[in-house]
């Protein structure tokens, strides 16, 4: 597999010790599931992907990306699962 030359880092180490690489990023036309949302949110959060790159590559709105990042910060990856939204919703 060949990677396009990118201006940012090719890998980042997450606080839990996992390594996230450019190859781990989902395809632009992906079907969004919790694990793929988490990868994109973590890539933005830890500098693997800039916010603008994520928005344009995946066709996301700022609110969507912000929600994903905040959900992970506040409740972990589980908060991105559609079936768990009620559990983590703020009143």
UniProtKB/TrEMBL annotation:
Matches recorded under Gene3D superfamilies: Winged helix-like DNA-binding domain superfamily/Winged helix DNA-binding domain (1.10.10.10)
SUPFAM superfamilies assigned: TrpR-like
Xref: Pfam families: DUF1153 (PF06627)
One term of GO molecular function: sequence-specific DNA binding
Protein name: DUF1153 domain-containing protein
Species annotation: Paracoccus aminophilus JCM 7686
């Amino acid at each position: 597999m060949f990677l396009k030359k990118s201006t940012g880092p090719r890998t980042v180490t997450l606080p839990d010790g996992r390594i996230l690489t450019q190859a781990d990023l989902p395809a632009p036309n992906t079907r969004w599931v919790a694990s793929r949302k988490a990868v994109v949110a973590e890539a933005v959060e830890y500098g693997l992907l800039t916010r603008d790159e994520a928005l344009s590559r995946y066709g996301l709105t700022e609110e969507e990306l912000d929600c994903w990042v905040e959900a992970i910060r506040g409740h972990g990856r589980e908060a991105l699962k559609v079936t768990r939204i009620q559990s983590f919703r703020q009143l």
